[in-house]
Every structure is written in C-alpha cells, then in structure tokens.
C-alpha cells in the first residue's frame, strides 16, 4: 500500500491533475465526505487528509509514504527525514512583509528600530530579518495575521500573499516580497528504498505533468 498525505483545499485540488497523469483517481470528494482516508481507483494507493502543516510530519515518520507540502511549511518544519524530489509548481504564492498604511517600514528599517512582527512563519521570518540585519521581536500566531497590526499587537506581519485582496480588505500594504512559494513532493526516505518500484513511476508521472 502507498499512502499519500494531502491537505484539503488548494493542495488537494491542484494535486488531482498530477495524480491523473499517474492514472490515479481519488474516489471521494473531501469537501463532501467526512472521511480522512480516501480510496483511489488503485487498490494499492490511498490518500490521507491532514492539516497542511502536518504533511511533513506524517511523511517524516512514515504515517504516509509521500505527500505534497508548501515550501513555507517545509521551511518551518526543517525537512528532516524528507526526500524532496520535485517542485510541483502548484499552490503558488509569495511570502511578504505587510504593514498598516501609516507605518513607515522603510524608515523603521533605516533607523534600526526594533520592529514587532507577528507571523505563523517564525523560522522563515527570523531568517529573513537576520539576513537583512533588522532587529525584530517575533510574535507567533496561528491565523488571522492581518489583525495584528490593526489591533496594535504588532507593527508588521510576515504572511503568504497571492492576490493581495485580503491585505487590501484589512487596509494593509505589502512592503517586501522576499520569497516565492510553491508546493513540493516529499517522500519518506525509507519508503523511497523499500517501495521504490511503486514510487518511481509515480514520481516520474508527477514530473511529466508539472504545470508551467
Ligand atoms: P489551514 O487552512 O488548515 O489553517 P493552511 O492555511 O496552511 O492551513 P491552506 O490555506 O490550504 O492551508 O494552504 C496550504 C498551502 O498552500 C500553504 O502552505 C501554502 O504553501 C499555499 N498557500 C497558502 N495560501 C495560498 C494562497 N493564497 N494562494 C496560493 N497558495 C497558497
Ligand atoms: Mg489557509
């Protein structure tokens, strides 16, 4: 049995065409079913639904043989125990710094002030500001980052942006786009050796179907 870990929503939807290229169809719709294990047209392949941030953990410890996870999630996780053969070029977005319109980010950076930054991505943010030589106090949040500058919790946020409409709706402006994000295929290192005959054709089919 091959177990593929996916998160519901965009990653699931955008992985379906890649699975189709490998001749695999998922037989249930996660938006309609409450099941967390979804059968496919192949008796030897199943999909497990986990939180996006849990995909690397499942694959690392062998709860799944392979999975699809965003670069953001992989950088926070650290990638230990994971083989990352393919950038799938799906679920594309960017990692950015955003602030309230009345906060002069450039001036704060130039003056060397300590900036309070709220984010779910503390590792990515820590690295980014260290590279820039900017002093920050990081505040870990688990969601609704846009609220932090509006309530005075933080001066800035580090978050994923795609269209920018969420920022706009909350009167925030993107002041620094510092990383492009897409999702990658991750494979358990032991499974890659033990289940190579099953995994290799799947990885090759995925590779052939990566969107431009
Ligand atoms: P949850 O919604 O369960 O809290 P999540 O927000 O991490 O988890 P998704 O919103 O499905 O889950 O995001 C999954 C992945 O898709 C992210 O890790 C990121 O790589 C990518 N992603 C997130 N937001 C966007 C976006 N607006 N556009 C494109 N890709 C995105
Ligand atoms: Mg989300």
């Amino acid at each position: 049995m091959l177990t593929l870990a996916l998160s519901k929503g965009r990653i699931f939807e955008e992985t379906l065409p890649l699975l189709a290229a490998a001749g695999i169809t998922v037989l249930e719709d996660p938006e309609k079913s409450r099941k967390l294990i979804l059968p496919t047209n192949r008796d030897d392949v199943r999909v497990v639904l986990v939180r996006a941030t849990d995909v690397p953990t499942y694959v690392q410890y062998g709860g799944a043989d392979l999975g699809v996870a965003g670069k953001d999630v992989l950088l926070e996780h650290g990638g230990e125990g994971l083989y990352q053969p393919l950038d799938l070029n799906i679920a594309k977005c960017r990692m950015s710094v955003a602030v309230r319109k009345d906060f002069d980010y450039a001036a704060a950076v130039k003056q060397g002030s300590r900036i309070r930054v709220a984010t779910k991505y503390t590792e990515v943010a820590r690295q980014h500001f260290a590279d820039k030589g900017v002093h920050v106090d990081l505040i870990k949040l688990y969601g609704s980052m846009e609220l932090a500058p509006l309530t005075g919790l933080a001066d800035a946020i580090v978050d994923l942006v795609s269209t920018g409409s969420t920022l706009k709706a909350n009167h925030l402006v993107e002041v620094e786009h510092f990383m492009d994000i897409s999702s990658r295929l991750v494979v358990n290192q032991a499974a890659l050796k033990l289940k190579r005959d099953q995994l290799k054709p799947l990885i090759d089919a995925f590779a052939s179907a990566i969107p431009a």
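The first strand starts at residue 2 and ends at 6. Residues 196-208 form the longest helix (13 residues).
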